[in-house]
Amino acid sequence: MPEFDSATPAELSPGVPDWSTVHRLLGELGEPPQSAGDWAKHFLGQEKVAEFFERGYVSNIRVLTEEQCDRILKDYEYFINPSKRHPGHAMLYEHHSNQSGDSNNVLMHGLGQWRLTRLFHDLVFLPAISVPSSQLLDQEKLRPVRFWHDQMFAKPARHGGVVAWHQDYSYWTRTKPMMHLTVHIALDDQTLENGGLHFIPGSHRWHRGGKPLPVTDFNFKDMESIKTILTEEEIANFKPVPSGLKKGEASFHHPLTVHGSYSNRTDHPRRATVVNYFADGVISNTDEPLLDGTNLIKRDCKVEGQFYPLVFDPDWARKK
Asked: What is the pTM of this model?
């Protein structure tokens, strides 16, 4: 049996499973695919794929039901309610109860929740997001998809903070080549008033000599700081478009697409979860562990193993 193919997880401590040791669907979000057709039905139409490569993103793709979102939101309590902290909290790669440091602009941001609960684990392997990702990593051909890491972003009612404009790959240059993808899943309806996700169409073509734009705010709180390093042409084309995501819908965006979200001043929270992927074959570009608490993958070695499972291979959708 291949490593991590068992449905029985290793344990951090007695009774606290580490779900990163299980590289298969558990069935929490539906029956796992049984045939090539079960995988293939999740491919996007060519019109959506073309839209992605033209605009740098595609949005409003239904991936979860409202009932599934509600179940995931119950698990979300482990990360936003200190009285319900998960016994496996130490397995998170990062957790910021308020990354901005400003009590009037609160942003909970975490990484690594897939290790702690069955539902967050199964989101990583969900065919509704892993299969389309194989179409969007490379414009030339379908690519096998490997998991990079997940994230949570929660904005509480009335004083939810911003996520400043940025490109994701600016934070990910410790891996190469750039063949990454971000899937943002709304767990609440996202509106102009509650800090919904926005994109800058065409900004996936913005770079500096093939490298991403520099990071201007590691804590995401200075919404417009990116404009200090943009060219006149880029500023002229800086025209935000709201994603308009409904609860259970996802957007897929390119690693250079500039995106961000404004504050939440409504009477309800705005919560989302994110799954980041890269193409199988991406290598390490650092001499440090890629994520806190994970094993070292030496520079120039392929990123794989316990924390970076293969979640979809196009061969799985081809009838034998």
From this structure: 0.96
